[in-house]
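Title: Comparing notes on inverse folding

I've been comparing how different people in this forum approach sequence design from structure. To keep things fair, I'm posting one structure and asking everyone to reply with a full sequence. Here's the target:
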């Protein structure tokens, strides 16, 4: 099968960013382009395959929804925008060729105090009609706060035009003075007309339900219940239920297949796809939904977890699964798609990763993203009947044609001889010994992967080698590698992080006098705790939104339903105090640069404030930059530009002299 390449269909469609003022030379320009918000935040294909919708931004707090008619002149047309500081337009999916369903997520404060996330769902027509709020309106008699604005369960309901299925958080209402008050509470499912907002309940609320899953015909087949204790807090235990075809009764997977976590249903095969632990690694299974309990292992490995299910199209058809070794690999269950992806990867420059992000209703038109370590990503339209592949939009327009540094998978030995995987990025043409940064990832239940990383590429553009270690405590490598997690077994995790720095020096890549460490979230914690363990190793420390006090992590969760889950994750015992860098500021030898947003709900900004106070009291050089009104991710072009400029100046002062 041969693919032809055509000129872009969408002339002039790239999102424009304000020109960066290059007042400080290359650093200013690098900070502006690498720190910019993505040009395409989300993109989707209409059921007919004749239109695309995408979310762009002003590089600040405003998101804009554009629609493009591929059959006409290909000019983008703005349908709506959202410019709220505390909310963002996060994604849009086509319900029909006329209506999109969009999600808004944001942060609000309950009674002006405790911050909480909230979401709302909108119907947006391409016919210039006003957007419609699909989230049910909270009654004035209702108890509680309506955080959850609903989740799309099915974009198509068989035999019903303009209808979708979406969850609803039912709130119990006061009954005084009325017979019409709702006394049920919990998560249910409604069928909603996106053109008229008419709705009817198809799944009664369940107080413990946290998710419903429909099959590809729009029938509710799976339910997830998250159990709570007597105080209403989550216990961390989940139960999974299924329905046989045509039945309204729920059956517990635990009755015949315990340990199985289902995530999708194939109606034709009458099976659920999901994950189960096999010899310490997560594997993909399918289980019959006929009551027999028959199961089949679909994909498993003995070195990494199978951690993603690959689904395409409006019906979210299961077509494969993926895992990450040195690079992410997709194993397709559909031979035609496997061949297609292989040919695309071979045809496109640099053999990029291929991601089928959306499809028309008949799956004959596909929306594809191709990306790599040196390419932030390009979207393409593939018309399978004609083999026509057309480039559409770059995901990060300011970085188009900009040279990038290659990211190479490596391993290095820990002190106990264990080989630790990671990724090394060296500026093009550079040779050691040079200034270098160890960059541990966040989480700790996460891992780094091969691919584009704007922070890594910024550091490389500024002349630094960057090593990203997947230390023990990282996810994706099985239960034994994850251990009890990177907080409870911080000594192992931080030991691996510090051994990454020692390896850079031993290999002649890093100059020991110009070795620094930086990280975000748990990575920021690791950067700080590395000083507690070995104060002489790194000569500069950058911590973005870091955990600094493990006791405080637990206390920050006290007002939320996941308090017990967080407390068990952090654990109790001597490791809590010993693993909190805020308690050992007097050990620090390197200067520290801290960043935090005031609306961070993952890690409260008091963590950085407390760290700053302790370091100042210990006489350690420290600078703390606080971003008012911004959350954990600091996803704002100016904020990230300013942060990168501050990092560049700090590292230049401490590592380049």
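Reply #1:
Here's my take.
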């Amino acid at each position: 099968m041969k693919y032809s390449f055509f000129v872009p269909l969408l002339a002039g469609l790239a999102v424009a960013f304000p020109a960066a003022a290059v007042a400080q030379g290359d650093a200013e320009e690098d900070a502006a382009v690498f720190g910019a918000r993505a040009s395409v935040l989300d993109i989707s294909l209409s059921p007919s395959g004749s239109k695309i919708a995408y979310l762009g931004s002003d590089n600040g707090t405003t998101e804009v929804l554009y629609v493009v008619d591929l059959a006409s002149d290909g000019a983008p047309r703005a349908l709506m925008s959202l410019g709220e500081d505390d909310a963002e337009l996060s994604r849009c999916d086509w319900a029909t060729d006329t209506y999109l369903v969009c999600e808004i997520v944001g942060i609000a404060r309950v009674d002006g105090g405790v911050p909480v996330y909230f979401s709302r769902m909108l119907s947006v027509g391409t016919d210039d009609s006003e957007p419609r709020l699909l989230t049910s309106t909270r009654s004035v008699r209702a108890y509680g706060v309506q955080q959850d604005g609903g989740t799309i369960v099915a974009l198509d309901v068989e035999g019903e035009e303009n209808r979708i299925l979406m969850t609803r958080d039912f709130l119990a209402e006061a009954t005084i003075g009325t017979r019409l008050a709702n006394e049920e509470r919990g998560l249910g499912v409604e069928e909603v007309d996106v053109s008229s907002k008419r709705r009817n309940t198809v799944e009664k609320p369940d107080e413990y339900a946290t998710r419903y899953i429909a099959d590809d015909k729009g029938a509710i087949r799976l339910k997830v219940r998250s159990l709570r204790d007597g105080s209403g807090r989550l216990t961390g235990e989940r139960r999974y239920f299924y329905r046989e075809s045509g039945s309204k009764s729920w059956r517990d997977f635990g009755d015949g297949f315990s340990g199985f976590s289902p995530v999708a249903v194939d109606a034709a095969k009458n099976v659920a796809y999901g994950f189960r632990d096999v010899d310490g690694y997560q594997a993909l299974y399918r289980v019959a939904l006929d009551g027999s309990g028959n199961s089949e292992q679909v994909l498993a490995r003995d070195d990494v977890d199978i951690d993603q299910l690959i689904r395409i199209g409006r019906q979210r058809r299961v077509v494969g699964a993926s895992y990450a070794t040195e690079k992410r690999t997709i194993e397709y269950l559909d031979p035609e798609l496997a061949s297609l992806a292989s040919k695309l990867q071979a045809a496109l420059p640099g053999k990029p990763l291929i991601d089928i992000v959306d499809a028309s209703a008949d799956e004959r038109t596909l929306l594809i993203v191709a990306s790599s370590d040196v390419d932030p990503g390009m979207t393409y339209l593939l018309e399978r009947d004609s083999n026509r592949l057309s480039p559409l939009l770059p995901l990060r327009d300011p970085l188009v044609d900009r040279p990038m540094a290659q990211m190479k998978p490596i391993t290095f030995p820990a002190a106990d001889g264990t080989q630790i995987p990671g990724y090394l990025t060296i500026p093009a043409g550079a040779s050691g010994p040079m200034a270098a940064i160890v960059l541990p990832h966040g989480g700790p239940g996460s891992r780094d992967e091969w691919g584009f990383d704007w922070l890594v590429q910024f550091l490389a553009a500024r002349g630094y080698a960057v090593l990203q270690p997947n230390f023990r405590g990282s996810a994706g490598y099985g239960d034994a590698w994850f251990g009890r997690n990177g907080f409870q077994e911080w000594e192992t995790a931080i030991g691996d992080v510090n051994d990454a720095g020692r390896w850079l020096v031993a290999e002649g890549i890093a100059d020991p006098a110009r070795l620094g460490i930086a990280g975000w979230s748990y990575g920021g914690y690791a950067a700080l705790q590395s000083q507690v363990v070995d104060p002489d190793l790194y000569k500069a420390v950058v911590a973005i939104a870091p955990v600094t006090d493990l006791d405080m992590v637990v206390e920050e969760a006290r007002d939320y339903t996941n308090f017990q889950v967080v407390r068990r994750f952090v654990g109790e015992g001597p490791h809590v105090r010993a693993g909190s860098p805020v308690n050992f500021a007097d050990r620090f030898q390197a200067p520290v640069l801290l960043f935090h947003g005031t609306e961070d709900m993952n890690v409260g900004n008091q963590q950085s404030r407390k760290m700053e106070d302790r370091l100042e009291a210990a006489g350690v050089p420290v600078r703390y930059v606080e971003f008012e009104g911004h959350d954990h991710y600091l996803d704002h072009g100016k904020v990230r530009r300013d942060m990168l400029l501050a990092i560049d100046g700090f590292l230049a002062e401490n590592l380049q002299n």
